Amino acid sequence: MARIARITRESFRVMGANRTRVFIMMLGMAVGVASLTLMICVSKGAYEEVMDIVNRQGPDLLQVRPGTDKHTGLPSGSRAVVSLLEEDVDAILQHIGNIRAISPVKDRKEVEVKHGDKFTLTRIFGITPVWSEIRDFGPSKGEFISEEDLSFAARVCIIGQTVKKNLFGDTDPIGQTIRIKDVPFTVKGELQWKGISSAGRDRDDRIVVPITAYTKRLFRDIYLTQIVITVADISNLDKTIEDVRSVLRERHKISAGEPDDFAMRTPQDLIDLAYSTTRSLINLLTGIAGVSLLVAGIVIMNIMLASVSARRNEIGIRRAIGAKKRDIISQFVMEGFLISMMGGLLGTMLGFGGSIILSYLKVAASRVTLLALAASIVSCSLIAVVFGIYPAKKAANQSPVDALRT
Amino acid sequence: MIKTKNIEKTYKKPSVTTPVLRGITLSIHRGEYVAIMGTSGSGKSTLMNILGCLDKPTSGQLELDGTDVYTLDDDALSALRNKKIGFVFQQFFLLERTTALENVLLPLIYADNYPADAKQRAKKALTNVGLEDRMEYLANELSGGQQQRVAIARALINDPDVILADEPTGNLDSGSTHEVLEIFSRLHQEGRTIIVVTHDRAVAEHAQRILELKEGQIIENTTSSKPENSGNH
Ligand SMILES: Nc1ncnc2c1ncn2[C@@H]1O[C@H](COP(=O)(O)OP(=O)(O)OP(=O)(O)O)[C@@H](O)[C@H]1O
Ligand SMILES: [Mg+2]
C-alpha cells in the first residue's frame, strides 16, 4: 500500500475516533455548500425557464411595436402609437434578405362578440396567414386563414379555446357564424390551446381574422400594433435587427440622434426580462453562499488549529516513530479535505432539498442539477486546502521534543 | 553501535543560559543493555532525545550504526527513527480511542515499504508482550502496565537496532514494573540493544552497565553487579 494511501486511511481512522469535532466542522461546511447549491439550482431553474420562454416564442422571433418601451410595447407618447404601417412591412421585406416570414398585426382588446344568446369580450387580431407559422400558433381543428381569405378580406375567423368555451360550450363551432361588433364572421377553425403567457395573459382568449377583413369590415385602424418577423439565419440576428431598425428609421424620417418611434423586442430582451425577476434572489443566495463558505473555511481553520494544540502528543509520537513533516501535513490536510468533502456532500443534499421545496412552494423555479454537486466538490477542495494548509504546517513544524512534552 | 563525541546542550533564554549537557562522550555497543541514571533535572531525557535523533545538541557529534547523524536532513532523520529506533516513554503516548493493534501498526504507516504481513507482525509483537487477548481493546480501555506493553510492542514492530526507554516504569506499579523489566531482559537476551533512562536504582540494576549523569556530565560508568537474566526468576 502506498504511503499516501496509508496516511489517508489513518486520517479516516482518526476522524472516526473524533466524531464530535468532525461533526462540527462538517456542519460549518454544510451550511456554506447548501447555500451554494441552492444558488446554483435557482440560477439553473431561472435559466431553464428563460430558455423555455425563448424556445416557445422562438429564438428567431423579432417583434416590432410602436412606442419606445420594448418590454411592454406600450406607447410612451401619442406620436408613438401612430408609427407602424403596412408599407413598413413591405419595405422590410424588400430591403432585407434575412427574413423568413413577416406579418403585420393589428389588434383590439375587449371587443364584443356574440353567438346566439352567448356574449363575450375578447381580443381580435388582424393578421396574415404566415402569422400562424411565425408565432407557432396554428389551428387544432378546421383550417387557418388562407391567402385567398386575405385577398378577398373574407369574413372568416379562427377562435381561441377560451372563446370557444364561452360561446359554444361543448358544441362544434366550425362552420358556425359569430358576430364580431355585429359583423357576421364564419368560424373556420379553432386555435390550438396555449395557456397563460409568461406575462399572465390568457393566450386562448382571442380571435384571429384576416388583417384585410379587420381593416375593411371591423376597425378602420391604419396603424399596426405589431410587426412579427422570423429571421432565416439566426446567427445573423443582430445584423438583421440593425437593418430593420435603419429601414424603419428611414421610412419614419427620424433624423440621427432622435430616438426610435418603435421598439424591437428580441429573444435577448426576453432573456433579460425573465432573468430580472430571479436576479435578486440569485444575488442574495450568491452573497450568502460566499459569506458562509468563508465562515466555514474559518471555522475549519480554527478547529484545526485548536486540534493541533490538543493533539500535540499525537503529533509528537508520530514524528518520533518516523512520520516526516510532510506526512503530518498530508494527514491534517487530508482530514480537513475529507471532513470538508463530507460536509459538502451533506450541504449539497440540503441544498437539493431546499431547491425542491423552493420550486414546490413556487418561490423560484429551482432545478436540481449535477452542476451544483461539481461546484460543491470544487469549492470544498479549495477551502479545505486553503484553510487547512496553515494549521497542517503548524502541526508539522513543531519540534518533536516540544510536541512530546506533557 | 551508538557513539557520541563531546555532546553539549545549552538552553538559551534572554535572561539565563542553562547548560544541561556539558560534553558527553560515550559509546554503546550492539546488544548492550544500558541504564542512564541521574537526579531529576540532570539531563537524562535531554540526552535520551538526542540519542533518539528527536533533538539536536548545541554541539558535538552522534554516530549511529556508522552514520554521522548530523549530516542528515529532517526527512532522513525521520526515516532513521522509523527504521532503527524504538521509543518507550513514561507517558506511553498511545493514540487513544485506537485499538492496541492499530497503535502497534502505527510505525509501519511511515515505513518506506509497508510489509504485506503487517497485521501478522503486529499480532506477533503484541503476543510477544503478553497481550494476545487485548489486541482489539482501545488504548484507554487498558491498564497502565498494559498500555506500556503496547508501547513496547509498537517500538518493536519495525525491528529496531536500539530501544530507547525514558522512565518506562515511572508511571507503573511494582507488578507492572516487573513485567516491563522482564520483557526488556528477554529482549536483551534475544540480542537487542536497550537503553533505559531511570532514576530508580532497582530498575537500573537490570542493565549490564549504568551511566550516571551529574551536572551535565557522565560521572560514573559502572558495570552492573547483577547477572544478565536477573529479570527472570
Ligand atoms: N526547552 C527547554 N528550555 C529550557 N530548559 C529546558 C528545556 N528542556 C529542558 N530544560 C532543562 O534542562 C534540564 C534537564 O531536563 P531533562 O528533562 O533532561 O531532565 P531529566 O533528567 O530527564 O529530569 P527528570 O528526571 O525530572 O525527567 C532541566 O533543568 C530543565 O529545566
Ligand atoms: Mg526526564
Summarize the SSE layout with pairings.
The complex is a heterodimer of chains A (406) and B (233).
Chain A: H1 3-17, H2 19-57, E1 61-66, H3 78-81, H4 86-95, E2 99-115, E3 118-127, H5 131-134, E4 139-142, H6 147-152, E5 156-159, H7 161-168, E6 177-180, E7 183-191, E8 206-210, H8 211-218, E9 226-231, H9 237-251, E10 262-265, H10 267-310, H11 312-320, H12 325-360, H13 370-397, H14 400-404
Chain B: E1 2-12, E2 17-28, E3 33-38, H1 44-51, E4 59-64, E5 67-68, H2 74-84, E6 85-89, H3 100-109, H4 118-128, H5 144-156, E7 162-166, H6 174-189, E8 193-197, H7 201-204, E9 209-214, E10 217-223
Parallel strand pairs in B: 3-8, 3-9, 6-7, 7-8
Antiparallel strand pairs in B: 1-2, 1-4, 4-5, 9-10
The structure holds adenosine-5'-triphosphate and magnesium ion.
Describe the structure.
The complex is a heterodimer of chains A (406) and B (233). Chain A contains 14 helices and ten strands. Chain A is an alpha+beta fold. Chain A has two domains: 2-52 and 272-405, no CATH class; 82-260, no CATH class. Chain A has a six-stranded mixed β-barrel. In chain A, strand 2 (99-115) and strand 3 (118-127) form a beta hairpin. In chain A, helix 2 (19-57) packs antiparallel against helix 10 and helix 2 (19-57) crosses helix 12. The two termini of chain A are 33 Å apart. Chain B has a single domain (2-226), classed as 3-Layer(aba) Sandwich (Rossmann fold). Mean pLDDT of chain B is 92; it is low at 228-233. Chain B has seven helices and ten strands. In chain B, a hairpin with a 2-residue loop joins strand 4 and strand 5. The interface between A and B is medium-sized, with 28 and 29 residues. The structure holds adenosine-5'-triphosphate (ATP) and magnesium ion (MG). Adenosine-5'-triphosphate (ATP) binds at residues 11, 18, 20, 38, 40-46, 199 of chain B. Adenosine-5'-triphosphate is lined by residues 11, 18, 20, 38, 40-46, 199 of chain B.
